[in-house]
Amino acid sequence: MWGEFLFGGSDFGRPPVPDPAGLPASGFAGQIATAIGTLGGGNAATVAAATKSAAQSDAAGVTPFSAFASDPATGLAEPRRGVPAEDGVVVPYGLFANRNAAATSSGETAGSWARDLLRGLASLAALTPAQATSPQDFRDLAAVIRNGLKSASAALADEAGALGLTEARLEDTRSRHAAVQTTVQSQLAGIQEVDLAAVLTRLKATETALQASYSAIGRLGSLSLAQFLR
Description:
The protein is mostly helical. The chain folds into two domains: 20-188, no CATH class; 197-229. The protein has helices at 27-37, 44-56, 67-70, 113-126, 135-192, 196-222, 225-229; strands at residues 82-86, 89-92. The protein has a two-stranded antiparallel sheet with strand order 1-2. Helix 2 packs parallel to helix 5 (135-192) and helix 4 runs antiparallel to helix 5 (135-192). The longest helix is centred in the last third of the chain and has 58 residues, at 135-192. The protein starts with 26 loop residues before the first helix and ends with a helix.
């Protein structure tokens, strides 16, 4: 439907990311920047864990996602939106802003392609020449960022593939429904759009034949055995 937010689950009247323009100044971006600012002295793994924790957080003031999308009782628990394809069969097509739909993220991941993408971009934005003064830590953290973005890319490809299969399935369903509709319309037309003159002619012929049959049967009933044998 026009005017609906596609990544918000059933909360399609409100944006799943309330302030996209404010992402650089959001709580999760601030936490990532603070963690990366401490890089050095062999703490790359600790910094990476802190950036992942920030990306995984659903706490108000930290997550960039809406309260509905971040609530375990609503957005985090509800199934994907779907469309009935036939009796008892619903084809899911819905996507979520803060969690995967059909894909499963693996490797260096915060749990979903969206979180991995935001984590990677926020981490890159927080890097400054100061972090390069610790070359090994910088390389280790860069590897984490790279692997996280690769995970996001792979999960996005899986989501795109699943949506392609859904599209093909719905197109097949649409074609079958169109064929059934055409058949039903043809049968209905055969009932509603009959040639009345031809039908009346056939009915008249049938009536004449029935009257002749009734007359013959009536005459048989009045015959005696002697008349019948003659």
